[in-house]
Write a sequence for this structure.
């Protein structure tokens, strides 16, 4: 497992955390360290256990086995109201009988800060989420994006050690979501609080996180920085979950001097450095993956690439800035997807046309 | 206008006929209450408020009214408290036997009241209880609780569970969470339950008739007066006032129920 952690010290330590609901194991032995001040994401398809893990950290549920420690203190038996965590709920959970300021001040009552200090902190928190002046607004008079900001302010005003975000952007429309991704990232850097985000949106996780834990079936499949996750996924499942990946069947024909020699169906014979097999080599039959943007169409006679092969365009999808081609390569089981930026003077090929595809060996990944 | 939008014409006729059958007798009540005659029949004689004045002077009626109010307040408060516990439990927790238990609590809703009344009478007498207003309260709690649960469980079910979790997450324990979040959000449901319980208890006759001792409630008193023709207009006047009171209470209950529905974000519906 690749674990290129950021500097600093572990704030949350998960040790073989397991959660069973009856016979079903929602979490099956999760161990990880989440660093102080980092933006950490739990990414996975629905049912992978990411929300369950978040609720265990928040204290709404107790693990069946294993331990969770926050700031070195074991959290077993500590209820949600006594943990140094605060949560932004997927439904936002804005109290409908309170106005915006009362919602934000809800948790401050216990701290007995006095009227002025409470008001000052509420104003500060509302300013942080760009809702200055909205204090007297009724909860039901807010838009989706505003509710989300109130939920954020209500959690941040508590100055938690860890802020937990349960799919906070999934209810927003695309434009607003993209804007909030950037804002959340900026906010996290500004306040320096550790954020743990649960999401099923791989793009969102890549944009916002320092590190991402990709989860399948109650286990962490890979924990790494967005870049490592994208460039060096440890297996086919991670590779196809993060972005688009072309897979080719391949045979290992030899290993020598840090190189793995391969015979790839559709791409031919290639030798790649051993570090491009992050999951190791198990057996002779393997998969080779390459991202669509790592494949290049060679439009003119003079265009050259380290390796190239010729194929036929089966489909071309025009996205405005990009065109995605599906190419049939001789010997390959499935058409390969190639993405090309639509720069000036570059033609758009039609289905049926022939094209040369080029790539470099450093862009190939060997996956078990 | 053609019958297209409202369906066939005869269907509208049927609906109007149904409403007339349902409510015409009720409208006769105020008409005869203000009629200046001891006989309940047309033609009307003239307008008078003497029936109401006479009612005002009847001491026995005042006693019966006081009894009814005591019983109605006690029955509605107790059934609402029981309803809060049962509705919250059934809305929040999965436990073995949840459905049958709630089913049995709701049963008095469809059970003939005379059976409930007779059964209660037999049991209470066998156990050696003497009949009093408290035994009436007991019977009324039995028939009011299902209504309380029906109103309150929709209030509890409509409440987003993450609101309570959010409160805990923000540092409040279970008790303060209940007081600061749960209670304010189901409060309209509680008011509605109190009002409905009060209304049901106030005009309930059969159980009150069987279980009351020497102190009659208002419906039992009215029934006893019906034997004397001379008292009929007075009964009409009394019925008239009870009708207005019931309508006001049910209207208030419905108002609070809708307010609760709006606050918890659910769409309305009929009780």
């Amino acid at each position: 497992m690749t674990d290129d952690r950021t500097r600093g010290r572990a704030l949350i330590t998960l040790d073989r955390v397991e959660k069973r609901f009856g016979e079903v194991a929602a979490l099956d032995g999760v161990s990880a360290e989440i660093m102080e001040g980092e933006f950490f994401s739990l990414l996975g398809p629905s049912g992978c256990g990411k929300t369950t893990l978040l609720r265990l950290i928040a204290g709404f549920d107790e693990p069946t086995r294993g331990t969770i420690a926050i700031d070195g203190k074991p959290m077993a038996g500590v209820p949600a109201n006594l943990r140094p965590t605060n949560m932004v709920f997927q439904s936002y959970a804005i109290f409908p009988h309170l106005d915006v300021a009362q919602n934000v001040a809800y948790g401050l009552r216990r701290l007995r800060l006095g009227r002025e200090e409470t008001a000052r902190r509420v104003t500060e928190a509302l300013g942080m989420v760009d809702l200055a002046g909205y204090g007297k607004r009724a909860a039901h008079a807010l838009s989706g994006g505003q509710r989300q900001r109130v939920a954020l302010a209500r959690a941040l005003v508590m100055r938690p050690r860890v802020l937990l975000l349960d799919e906070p952007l999934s209810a927003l429309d695309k434009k607003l979501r993209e804007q909030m991704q950037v804002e959340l990232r900026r906010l996290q850097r500004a306040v320096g609080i550790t954020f743990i985000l649960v999401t099923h949106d791989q793009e969102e996780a890549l944009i916002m996180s320092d590190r991402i834990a990709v989860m399948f079936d109650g286990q962490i499949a890979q924990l790494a920085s967005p870049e490592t996750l994208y460039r060096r996924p440890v297996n086919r499942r991670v590779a196809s979950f993060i972005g688009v990946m072309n897979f080719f069947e391949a045979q290992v024909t030899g290993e020598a001097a840090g190189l793995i020699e391969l015979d790839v169906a559709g791409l031919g014979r290639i030798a790649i450095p051993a570090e491009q097999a992050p999951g190791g080599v198990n057996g002779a039959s393997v998969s080779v993956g390459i991202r669509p943007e790592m494949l290049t169409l060679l439009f003119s006679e003079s265009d050259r690439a380290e390796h190239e092969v010729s194929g036929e365009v089966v489909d071309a999808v025009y996205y405005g800035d990009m065109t995605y081609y599906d190419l049939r390569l001789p010997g390959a089981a499935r058409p390969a997807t190639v993405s090309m930026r639509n720069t000036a003077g570059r033609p758009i090929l039609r289905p049926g046309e022939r094209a040369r595809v080029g790539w470099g060996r450093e862009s190939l990944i060997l996956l078990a | 206008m053609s019958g297209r939008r409202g369906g066939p014409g005869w269907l509208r006729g049927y609906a109007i006929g149904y409403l007339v059958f349902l409510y015409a007798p009720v409208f006769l009540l105020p008409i005869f209450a203000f009629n200046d005659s001891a006989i309940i029949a047309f033609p009307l004689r003239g307008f008078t408020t003497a029936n109401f004045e006479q009612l005002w002077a009847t001491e026995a009626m005042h006693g019966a009214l006081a009894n009814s109010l005591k019983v109605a307040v006690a029955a509605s408060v107790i059934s609402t408290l029981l309803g809060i516990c049962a509705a919250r439990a059934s809305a929040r927790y999965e436990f073995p036997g949840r459905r049958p238990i709630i089913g049995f609590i709701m049963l008095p809703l469809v059970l003939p009241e005379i059976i409930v009344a007779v059964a209660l009478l037999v049991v209470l007498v066998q156990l050696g209880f003497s009949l009093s207003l408290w035994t009436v309260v007991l019977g009324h709690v039995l028939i009011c609780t299902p209504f309380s649960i029906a109103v309150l469980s929709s209030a509890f079910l409509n409440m987003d569970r993450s609101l309570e979790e959010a409160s805990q997450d923000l540092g409040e324990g279970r008790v303060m969470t209940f007081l600061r979040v749960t209670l304010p959000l189901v409060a309209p449901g509680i008011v509605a339950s109190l009002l409905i319980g009060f209304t049901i208890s106030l005009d309930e006759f059969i159980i009150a008739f069987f279980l009351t001792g020497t102190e009659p409630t208002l419906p039992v008193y009215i029934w006893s007066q019906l034997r004397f023709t001379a008292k009929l207009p007075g009964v009409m006047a009394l019925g008239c006032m009870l009708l207005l009171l019931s309508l006001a209470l049910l209207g208030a209950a419905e108002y609070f129920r809708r307010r609760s529905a709006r606050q918890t974000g659910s769409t309305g519906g009929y009780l």
User: Anything to note?
Assistant: The CA atoms of residues 120 and 126 of chain B lie 10 Å apart. The interface with chain A takes residues 160, 162-163, 165-173, 180-181, 184-185, 263-265 of chain B (CB under 8 Å).
